[in-house]
């Protein structure tokens, strides 16, 4: 009888632990009224679209002009965890996100949660978008719904075991998902705007900051450069410890893609410049001012 009671208590304890783990690891969407009172403005949303770099991943890599507004997805992003494929985020009601509400978009961007209540992989940079303003997301949603719908189906990610177990992403989020600012202190209004563009919408840290073994950004080495996720080359250190460009140099680079040495942006950075070139010069200047406030990290071998 005593053995039976112990077995019952053990089973109950394991059940309780399983329930606690399920709660901790479950997706945590925003409240249903999170977007209450917010009306999206598609004109403002276009600026959010370029600042957030949506076309850089979700349009064709070689898209030009208005083709950048056809967000059929399909670009492939290799990483140590597998290859991720950008999905269709055009307003097509079946193939894209045409049926999404502004709240659905906010949950995806700030919490990494799909409308079906599943975890997204952090290849979608919600670890940065978590800092985005809800009004900006409402505006972005309004703009996205004005774009051409495309019927191209999204392709599945190529991710093997154990990284294909999405429930484990709840643990990843517990460790690494935060809406705290990386650079704190007494920033000017211009520097604060630059911080928002770099740390939130522009998600610059996703590429320029090294990651630990679990894929979390090492915030103590913020923007200090990192190996390219595809294993080819290195993404540069853009802290003042390595980047000696003037603020005017940075603004020019984000406008034209030309460096002070008359080199030019290549690869995916060329797409980033195509996005930042759409921003007002005041925003590019704000990014430059912020980068000068980032704690310097010496160039690493």
From TrEMBL:
GO terms for molecular function: electron transfer activity; heme binding; metal ion binding. The keyword Iron applies. The keyword rRNA processing does not apply. InterPro entries: Cyt_c-like_dom (IPR009056), Cyt_c-like_dom_sf (IPR036909), Cytochrome_c-type_DH (IPR051459). Keywords: Heme, Iron, Metal-binding. Residues 40-148, 189-295 form the Cytochrome c domain. Gene3D superfamilies: Cytochrome c-like domain (1.10.760.10). Pfam families: Cytochrom_C. It comes from the Bacteria. PANTHER family: ALCOHOL DEHYDROGENASE CYTOCHROME C SUBUNIT (PTHR35008:SF8), BLL4482 PROTEIN-RELATED (PTHR35008). This is Mono/diheme cytochrome c family protein. The lineage of its organism: Bacteria, Pseudomonadati, Pseudomonadota, Alphaproteobacteria, Rhodobacterales.
């Amino acid at each position: 009888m005593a053995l039976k009671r112990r077995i019952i208590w053990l089973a109950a304890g394991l059940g309780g632990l399983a329930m606690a783990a399920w709660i901790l690891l479950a997706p945590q969407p925003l409240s249903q009224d999170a977007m209450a009172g917010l009306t999206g403005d598609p004109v403002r949303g276009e600026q959010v679209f370029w600042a957030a770099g949506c076309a850089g991943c979700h349009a064709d890599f070689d898209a030009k002009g208005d083709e950048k507004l056809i967000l059929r997805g399909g670009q492939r992003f290799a990483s140590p965890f597998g290859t991720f494929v950008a999905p269709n985020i055009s307003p097509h009601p079946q193939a894209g996100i045409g049926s999404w509400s502004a709240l659905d978009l906010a949950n995806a961007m700030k919490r990494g949660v799909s409308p079906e209540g599943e975890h997204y992989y952090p290849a979608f940079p919600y670890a940065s978008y978590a800092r985005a303003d809800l009004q900006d997301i409402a505006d972005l949603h309004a703009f996205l719904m004005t774009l051409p719908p495309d019927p191209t189906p999204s392709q599945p990610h190529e991710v093997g075991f154990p990284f294909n177990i999405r429930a484990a992403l709840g643990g990843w989020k517990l460790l690494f998902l935060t809406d705290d600012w990386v650079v704190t202190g007494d920033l000017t209004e211009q520097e604060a705007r630059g911080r928002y563009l770099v740390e939130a919408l522009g998600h610059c840290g996703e590429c320029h900051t090294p990651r630990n073994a679990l894929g979390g950004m090492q915030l103590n080495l913020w923007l200090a450069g990192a190996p390219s996720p595809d294993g080819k080359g290195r993404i540069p250190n853009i802290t003042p410890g390595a980047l000696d460009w003037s603020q005017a140099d940075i603004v020019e680079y984000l406008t034209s893609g030309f460096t002070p040495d008359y080199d030019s942006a290549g690869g995916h950075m060329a797409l980033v410049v195509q996005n930042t070139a759409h921003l007002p010069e005041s925003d590019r200047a704000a990014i430059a001012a912020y980068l000068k406030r980032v704690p310097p990290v010496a160039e690493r071998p």
